[in-house]
Design goal:
Elements (H helix, E strand, L loop, with lengths): L11 H44 L3 E6 L1 E3 L3 E10 L2 E5 L5 E6 L6 E2 L4 E6 L1 H43 L5 H40 L2 E3 L4 E6 L6 E3 L2 E2 L9 E5 L3 E8 H4 L7 E5 L8 E13 L4 E8 L11 E8 L5 E5 L3 E4 L2 E7 L5 E5 L1 E5 L3 E6 L6 E3 L13 E4 L2
Parallel strand pairs: 1-25
Antiparallel strand pairs: 1-24, 2-18, 3-13, 3-17, 4-12, 5-7, 5-10, 6-9, 7-8, 9-12, 10-11, 13-16, 14-15, 14-17, 15-16, 18-23, 19-20, 20-21, 20-24, 22-23
Helix pairs in contact: 2-3
Length: 406
């Protein structure tokens, strides 16, 4: 039995040939859309976010400037300095025979600190005294010559009155008397000069005893027995240093630098409290004795001196102290965070925000720096909204969104 095949419709092969390329193209389009569209969407979202960020106003932390009373107790660092201090040098040249004071010793005015052996000065003094004796002898001779000339001139006057001698002989005798008088005056002047030289050398020999110029404490000794010293400086083993250094520390001086804003309120006689870390829990009473009377243009401060009683000598020169003193200004000061102050080539400013969020750079004058906060004596009145930490690029008119913060 034979099987007959089903007839194939006309055009069926052509349909299969046409459908395969179309399916491939459609597949490519689907793949392209599936790969490109997510990236396109991501770029669009990023662009929209960037545009929104650019349109958003920057946020800054602000705080309120606070007006505080001008009167307060100001605590400033101070330096302790000796009330009197001197470098003691030799007024005579010689060798150190002995020294009688060492570092740490307390001495009184006129106490002998060292004794010098001055052989050259001693010889000069002996020579000056011998010269003075010569001048005394010369004066005696001049006086004798004057007396003889006076007698001779008197005789000549008598003889001239009796016409026994000529007028020329009488004039010659009187002239010789005048010369003798001049010789006496010259001899007296020589004696005066010789006596002055003797007194000078006696005083120089006396300078061989080096004495304390005032009562105090010896803080340096730069000599030893046998050291050669010259007038005005110590030489030899001392290397050109002074023989002694002496300090008087009762009372002791304290120097502080008062800021310009409070300078006018510091008056002579005003009380202060001085404290040191070496004496915890103790305060020493001080008093303002004088001020420099001028503001230092470099630091804008007033140099103030206080005196502190120091009878036991426990406060030492060179110590560091804290000085508390009552001060005031004629108007309230405004306190802001120290980070709010902008210092650049244009001066010192603070950035404030108005009600519309616009920044304004306000020139200010600094007062006391308290560390985290700083007082302004000019520029603000209090109550202003101050940008806590402005950047260096903040300018007038920039807009910000305020965030309240410390």
């Amino acid at each position: 039995m034979s099987t007959a095949s089903a007839p194939i419709p006309r055009g069926a092969g052509r349909l299969r040939r046409v459908s395969s390329p179309g399916l491939a193209l459609l597949l490519l389009i689907v793949l392209f859309v599936a790969g490109y569209w997510p990236r396109y969407s991501a770029r669009e979202r990023l662009a929209r976010k960037s545009s929104a960020a650019e349109r958003r106003v920057p946020e800054v932390r602000v705080t309120t400037a606070v007006a505080v009373p001008g009167g307060r107790t100001l605590t400033l660092p101070g330096n302790l300095v000796a009330f009197q201090q001197a470098l003691v040098d030799a007024r005579a040249s010689g060798y150190v025979a002995r020294w009688r004071a060492d570092i740490g010793d307390r001495v009184r005015t006129g106490d002998v600190l060292a004794e010098l052996d001055t052989p050259e000065l001693n010889q000069q003094l002996e020579q000056a005294r011998a010269t003075l004796k010569q001048k005394d002898a010369a004066l005696e001779q001049a006086l004798a010559n004057r007396n003889y000339a006076r007698i001779a001139a008197g005789r000549q006057d008598v003889l001239l009155a009796q016409s026994l001698i000529s007028k020329q002989d009488d004039d010659q005798a009187n002239q010789q008397l005048e010369v003798s008088e001049a010789n006496v005056h010259a001899a007296q002047a020589d004696i005066g000069a010789a006596q002055a030289n003797v007194r000078r050398l006696v005083q120089l020999v006396g300078f061989g005893r080096v004495v304390a110029p005032f009562a105090g404490r010896i803080t340096q000794r730069n000599i030893d027995v046998g050291s050669l010293v010259t007038a005005g400086t110590a030489a030899g083993a001392t290397g050109g240093q002074p023989l002694f250094r002496i300090e008087a520390i009762d009372p002791i001086r304290v120097f502080i630098q008062v800021p310009q804003a409070f300078a006018l309120s510091v008056k002579q006689g005003e009380a202060a409290r001085v404290s040191l870390r070496e004496f915890p829990g103790r305060e020493f009473a001080g008093r303002v004795v004088r001020t420099a009377g001028t503001i230092d243009p470099a630091s804008r401060t007033l140099n103030v001196e206080l005196d502190v009683a120091n009878p036991t000598g426990e406060l030492l020169s060179g110590m560091f102290a804290q000085v508390a003193i009552a001060v005031a200004v004629s108007h309230p000061v405004v306190r802001v965070p120290a980070s709010a102050v902008i210092t650049d080539a244009h001066g010192i400013h603070v950035a404030t925000l108005d009600g519309n969020g616009e920044a304004h750079l306000v020139p200010v004058v600094l007062g006391l720096d308290n560390g985290r906060e700083i007082d302004l004596v000019e520029g603000l009145e209090g109550g202003e909204q101050v940008i806590v930490d402005p950047g260096a690029d903040v300018t007038d008119g920039m807009r910000f969104e305020a965030l309240k913060g410390p």
